[in-house]
Each structure stands twice: as structure tokens, then as C-alpha cells.
Amino acid sequence: MEANIVYEKFGGLLKEEPLSCVDHSILLPNTCVLESVTPFLGYYNEAPGSIKPLYLYLVLEGDCSFEKTMRASHKIKRTFKHPFDAVAGTVSLFGQQNQVIRVRNLDDFSHVGLLQKAFLDEGIVFKKKIRKIDNENALISLTKFFYLEPVGELMYFDKSQPHHGYFIIPRYVSWEDFKDLTKEVKYDTDLLFFDSAKAFFCENHSITEIVRIYRENLTVDKLKAIRDRYLKLMKPT
Q: Which of 2, 85, 163, 197 is the most buried (most CB within 10 A)?
């Protein structure tokens, strides 16, 4: 194990979660903000009673590049009085893809409107609220940096977020195949109580395929057991 080493990697993540419209007076008028009804669905559906983190998606109008979102977020953090984490992404609902800013780590829901205003001041335009979305399953794609601490052979913990682990897989897997693979992994009842997402990071002029595992109080042994089950079930190409 490489102790006290953290690798910064650039890549992306794909997951599926139910989303609903936020309907609250603290939002900027006539804007669309979606909330993850059950973030980390595979875990919190199996572990009822746990306190779920707040994940919000500010829906944008038209095209907004990753660079513009990141520059705006970096500038806002210099003066914004409250913590937050923001990354660019897309949300696919009803056959339509919308650009979003995913927001997490807010310590108070009342800060959402203030953060919207800060992004608006940086030229980010929000989509108008057109229809009611209530507990609709959405495919969520994020472009982000990973901060990875090695914890074993081809395994990592996330140094920026608790309860997140990652492991490398040998090849690309489509989203539908990944969902089927995860169901098979969970047939082993010793491996219940985790949520998984498909991800990747870029290095050495190539793409490394990884799986993100979320589980409260995730241990190296538990991450290894989940990883070993995935690798065992992955069929060779």
C-alpha cells in the first residue's frame, strides 16, 4: 500500500437515480432545480433510517462548457461564505438530455438560492421550470476530478468524500451490462448494502475504467470483497 499518497485524476462518472423538482421560495424565480430523492439508491434503499446526503442539480439553459462551469465555481468559492462542491454534468429525462451543475456539501438547504445567484452573476443561465418532475428515474453523467488514495491492489478511497471507494476493472462495460452485473454481484447476500456507479479516469494517453462503491463506513476488506465478486463475474470479451 502506498501510504499518504493521493492521486488527482480527471474523468467522469455515470449513475442512475430518481430525481424530483425542488419547489421552494428560496430558489431563484422560475428556475429548475432537481433533487436526488434517494442518492446512492443501491445503499439507502437497503439501509433504511440512514440520513441521506443532499444532492442537487441546477438545470442550465443551452450549452455550458465544463470550463465555464469550473471557472465560475472556482471564482465563487473565493467569496461565497458557505461550503459547496460543484461539477458539470448532464441529466437524461424523458428522452431529453439537459446540462446541469451538480451541487453537494451544502451545510444548509437555504443556501441554494444564494448559490444560484452567484452562478447567475458569473453568466450561467438557468433553464426555466417547464414541467413537474416527481421521483423520475434519470441517467446522470458527471465530469469531475477524483482524489484517490491507494488502499490495496488497484483499489482506492476517495480523499474528498467519505464512504466512497473505487477499484479498477479490466475493460469497458456498457451501462445496461453494468446494471446487470451489479445485480449478479448482489446475489451474494454477504455483499448487500452498497451503491455502485460506472466511472473512468484519464492517464497515460488512455482511459482507465473504474467502479465507484458507496457504503457508509466502507472498509478495505469490504471494498476488496465487492471488487473480487465483480471481477469474477465479468465475462471475457
A: 197
With residues binned 3-state (H G I as helix, E B as strand, rest as coil), the percentages for the chain, rounded to 5, are: 25, 35, 40
Encoded amino acid at 102, one letter:
R
Angle between helices 220-233 and 175-185 (to 10 degrees): 120
Residues 87-109 have pLDDT tens digits of 999 999 988 999 999 999 998 88
The three cell numbers of residue 81 are 461564505
Any bridge partners for residue 96, and if so which? 93
Distance CA 225, CA 145 (A): 26
Q: Which residues contact 105 (CB under 8 A, 6 or more apart)?
A: 83, 84, 85
Kindly indicate the confidence band of residue 152, based on its pLDDT and cuts at 50, 70 and 90.
Answer: confident
Helical spans, DSSP H, in 45-151 = 66-79, 112-121
